[in-house]
Design goal:
By secondary structure, the chain is α+β, with helices and mostly antiparallel strands. The protein folds into two domains: 183 residues, no CATH class; 177 residues, no CATH class. The chain has 13 helices and ten strands. Strand 6 and strand 7 form a beta hairpin. The chain is elongated, with a radius of gyration of 33 Å. The protein starts with a helix and ends with a helix.
Amino acid sequence: MNFTNLFKIAIKAINNNKMRSFLTMLGIIIGVASVITMLAIGQGSKQSIKQNIAEMGSNMIMINPGADRGPGGARMSADEMQTLTLTDYETIRDQAKYLTAVSPSVSSGGQLIYGNNNYQSSVSGVSEGYLTIRQLKVESGEMFSEADIKASAKVCVIGKTIVDNLFPGGVDPIGQVIRFNKMPVRVVGVLKSKGYNSMGMDQDDIVLMPYTTVMKRILAQTHLQGIYASAITEEMTPVAIDDVTQILRANHKLRNGEEDDFSIRSQEEISSMMTSTMSMLTLLLACVAGISLVVGGIGIMNIMYVSVTERTREIGLRMSVGARGIDILSQFLIEAIMISVTGGLIGVFLGVGLSMAVKVLAQWPIAIEAWTVLLAFVVCTITGVFFGWYPARKAANLDPIEAIRYE
């Protein structure tokens, strides 16, 4: 019996039991759709994280004071971590060979007030190089100058969120005086909007002031809360970190064998960690969704067993007129594969549709890649072969005489 005849017989058998065949496919459809949707969400999240880190500056380096834990493993408070100073910033700025920009960082939370409008936020004390490091651009007005930094001037540059909350109705914020807590500050510039990142953080909720202003007039402190820097290229980030480490160790007079009293992290390191975490989460989601495929495969095996039992006399008649065991096996195996492949195709379309629905309705980043669709389809086909083989083999091994006598 040739393949074409076997294919026609399989189609006829499926067509004679449409509802049963559809319910058998349902497990495969749900499994494939779930796998594609989960992988699309996972891949989309990874790409979104990488994109947002790139927007923040993929070659950014963050230098923090102290270590997370002190002697004996006790966690140190923020007040105890005062190991970074302006001298460290100036030395890095003057001596580092692989950096394009350096900025100190100090911050304080409080209330911003303009007229009858107020908004709870925080201010960041930085230098002009911070714009380069964080890839920020001034849309209107200008960035404060080096002269403002030296004079600890009461000036600031604000983001779109601050503008929307303090200056509703289209008021031009440039030149206006706002108050941070009780200190009057003049707005000299507005930053170009960057929107929300993948972690839900508003990148426009930002107020930049000269670091000297924040240190002297707001915090009354001499130490830095951190230093930001930007490597020449992303590939040179490890070399730049080694260079900065040596500069700070020399500055802090640390001997060989002594631990660093500072910590350095790069965006590349954070990106790798977050991508690795998302990959594990995506794999977990895909495995959970893949259970549906196994359940669907068991459904195929169950229905094929029922089909073999129902058609025992038919199998006996076919074998008595010359059908070989391989022909019977192929017939039932083709039925199983057709059910799983058809269910897989429907599942692919359903999975793509669900992924797009998640993107539109939940505003979640989605990335449907060809390999995820191919993987889900191949797995469902293998499932059909695997779970359809045993019932098909049972049908092929039936004794023709006993099969004809079967009631």
